[in-house]
Prior knowledge:
This protein is about 30% helix and about 20% strand. The chain has about 100 residues and is of the alpha/beta class.
Amino acid sequence: MNEISTKDLEARLDAGEQPNMIDVREHEEVAAGMIPGAVHIPLMELPERLGELDRDREYIIICRSGNRSSMACNFLGGNGYNVTNMAGGMLEWEGEVIA
Length: 99
């Protein structure tokens, strides 16, 4: 599975890149803040929302610690999507967040 560190993702954002990011945490978790530009799709909603994703794009998957995003990467990768897990999750994120 592809992984990106929180520092590397933050550097990409600081450089002006706009990667496709999906936050798979629950609603109450993202209410505390999420990375600007990320799209919220809770893990359990992924199967029914696959039609919103493009198999030709790379997606960086985000959760609290990296465990749920790893599960999401396994699911999405198995369905033909190009995905990268943000290792360490929001627990290790030191960049900007929005509520």
